[in-house]
Amino acid sequence: STTPGAMAYQQKLAEKLTVLNERGRGVLIRMKHIKTVCSDPQLKPSFLTEKAMEPAVKYINKKFPNIDLRGNIQNLSGVQKQKSEILVALTSYYYSFIDVMEFRDHVYELLNTIDACQCFFNITVNFDFTKSYLDLIVTYTSVIMMLSRIDDRKVLTAMYNCAHEMSNGNSDPSYPRLGQMILEYDHPWKKLTEEFGPHTKSVTGAVLSLHMVYPRRNLGAEQWRSAQLLSLLSVPADMLSPACCETMPCEYLPMEVMERWIILGFLLCHSSLNTNQASQDLWKMALRSGLYITLIRDETINIHKVTEDYFDTLKGYSKRIADIKECREHVIVNCGAIHKEKRQFLRNAIKELCKILEDEPGLLGPKALYVCMALAFSRDEVLWLVRHSENVPKTKTPEDYIDSQLAELLFYTEKLKTLMCRHSRVLQRYHLQYLAQFDALALNDTIQNMNVCPEEESVLMTSFVSTLSALTVKQVENGEEFDFRALRLDWLRLQAYTSMAKAPLCLKDYPDLAKIMNMTEFHTKMMDDIDGVLRETSDLSILCFYPRVFEKMFSQGCEDVLMQRYLIAFPLVCSHFNQCTHQMCPEEMDAIEKRSLRFCVTFLEEIAKQTCSIVLEICAEQCNLDDQLLPKHCAHTISTARNKKQKKQVPKKGEVQREKPGTESMRKDRAVVTNMDKLHLTLTELCSSLNYCNHFTVWDHVIIPPEYLLSQLEINLAKVIVRMANYNKATHEITRPSDLLAGIKAYTSSLYTLSRYLSVDVTRLVKSVLLQQTQPLDSQGDQTITTLYTSWYLEGLLRQASSALIIHCPTMHCFVNQPNENETRFKAEEYSDVSGENLLLPFTISWSNNEQTLHTECRKLVIDNMDVLVQIRSNFDKPEAMTNLQSRLPASENVLKRMTIIGVILSFRAMIQAALGDVLAVHLFTGSFMCAVCSSAPCDIVKIEGLTTSVVRMCVLKVSHFHCNFLSLTGHHNNIHCLATAINQLSAAMFTAQNKNIEQHLKEFLFVASSTLLQLGQNVERTDSKNRDSIYLLLHMIVEESPFLSQDMLEKCFPYALLRNAYRDVYKSSIITLG
């Protein structure tokens, strides 16, 4: 016969529990996925919703599981037509249900084996063995419950089998058992309790072992406070003492896990509730803890309703039903406030713990258990709130289920995790020495004191001692990777071997061995599985499946100013969501990844929007203060200073005294909080949140929080700049460029103060925004100030300049208004002053496009009159022929006007380049305008020369005198002086494009023009005589502005005496007019 010890080794209970728990978790997630898919009309298989399949679906639901294919082929005709597609689409669903059936078979077999071995379970002794056993029971129950919640389970199973039989001629071999199983679990609790009847002793014993642990963990905030729970400062002398106890793994065991064990355990094996007072007490304590427990993710059960409904079907449970009602009433009245107080206590306790450990990370070694407890307690309270926030009971205090300060608790939870990961080497160094110099010695002493030690157990325990004793500090210093998974699995094996009845070595007889090994297991996890411990104690991936609750928690935190510095906790929690997946269900990973990223991005964008709003509000306020210091506001101050010695005038009634700039900074009481104080405080809080970490990872995506702020600032700063331009298309009003520049400078200088709060590249931000403003549209597709000012200058200033309502003043380097009877809407000099022109550089590209249009039209006129122009060029020295040819140019006035407009635009561009100096002085026009003319044919040179000659000839009739009222302006009433600029630059561009000698051709032009003007001097006609002097000066201006012509060249073909006399006559004329 097989000895009990040999039986223990052969059964491999530890290995089976480990494998089945992992497998069960995968099967459970698959059932949840199938339920989710089938609950969504857009995701569920199309066969379940098609009109043609309705008869088959109804028939299958009615006759399941016995489907007669031959007698009811009419009802199943839809299945027959699409059998191949159905097989492909429903295979994963069908075999997922097969997985459930196989999992159930293995669980049955293992539970029966455990009962046959008469294993004992005690969470404080054989912790891992008991936990694995209870986890398997709860996982199995949850799988069956999820299966029963899939409404389409019968259709999915039977339709696949029908398609299989139609395709292969026979039914799937697994279908009869699978169909029977699905049918049995139509009423899951009844069937489950029948199944667990034989296991009542083992299940009840395992659950009752919590009678010491669960009540101790289920204390209120007042009791925690009295015990100074989690405080490192309560007993300063013990600060360096290692935190340990006899039941270390139980101290951070999740409350929800224990409640599931108790509620579901006593629901499956309920007989002891009527016979055992300890069972009743533990059960009622769990019932008083809340209304819901979680099966998987957002799938919960209402524990009171489910238990009451089931007990209603049993005889002799009326007292238990009364207990359930009393417990439910207790939960509704008290639980909200109890857990609210717990969260308040934990916020302060964890904050204190974080501050101490951040200052002294060396304490993480001895106090690692405290960190795990703090994380586990916080997670318990968050999960409780999440479960109950989705279904708040009818209570007089619903505010107990709303926590606007949850962000703080989440933040310090994340901070504790960060500290653990950051100082992992500290933890490893401490616990390595603990394992080698204490645990190994204590374990060896315990082994030596044993009366009986079988060979297999002796081998395992000896290997424990040798493995721990071999550890050295140099392994940590050398960065060696540790792996104690084999040791922990051996400890689970040893627990299984020594937990059977009649085992040679019974673990319950050696509690010291259990204590030292449970402690050793915790210490090994601190060496090689810190991430695993953190997942176990602080995983909040359940929030991924409660979107409304998650988003509501975030919005509540946003509304509370004191919580704004902790808002980064919500995006950080999104990094947990990859922990809720399983390799058995890869289909859902993409959806969960997208949901995780969506949550993370949404939260960060909202934080960034709030921060951006505050930043721009501060900038706007600073811009207003800077505006008060602009020179345009100094007139009132100067006037007041001049009249200071005079008798003080009594202010008019109702007149508000204007405050001096800087008054806002003066205050008598620092306690008085200004609006700017509030803004800077809020900015500090929000930036603290964004600056908490440089980056973090969500599903392999690296998230950099400050970049979200830069994106928001880029979008909104562009809008602010456009808004500051204040362009009104209807009235053609726009902000002065100098004022806009002052505003942008004020905003920019304020933005640079952001670097005091946050590590962001403000220079990159400003460059990006301003460079976008040089384009017609920004990155968002919105209009920029380039578009607005281009439109305004073309439609406003330059259009009026082309109509001679505004003239270009070379002396003042600006445009000025002509005196006229009509009231002007703006002063041209204010919109063309040098101080604002460096803003206007981007617009010249658009204006260059306009120049190209004008040039194209001029060229068209040349082509149309090419023959005449050629003759003019050949007969320039024949006055009679020239007069005759001149009359054959019908569009000469149009040419002159267009050339003048080109000159005005080029003059404006020259002002911009002069203002910018060396920065971009020579890059823009040469590139843009020359490109437009490069396509001209070689014969255009002749045409342009003829055109130029024609233009000069037309000047005889069209050019007026210099502006008489403003001698210093040195400009003509009709802007004809801009013609010099047009001729010089247009000719240079044309000849350059054709690779011609510019100087040679301009000399020829000068000779032709001089000859024409000398002939004009012989003409005494009244109109020509009136304009002759101005034309002489125009020729002089052409030579002065040209880099290719000189005064010596001019004097060779045109007497200087005529120029001198022309200047004198024009000056005299202006003196007479002014007089």
UniProtKB/TrEMBL annotation:
Position of the signal peptide: none
CC per GO annotation: SCAR complex
Stretches the record annotates as Disordered: 641-667
Basic residues: bias regions: 642-651
Sequence ranges of Basic and acidic residues compositional bias: 652-667
GO biological process: cell migration; cell projection assembly; cortical actin cytoskeleton organization; neuron projection morphogenesis
Protein name per the record: NCK associated protein 1 like
Organism of origin: Scleropages formosus
Gene name of the encoded protein: NCKAP1L
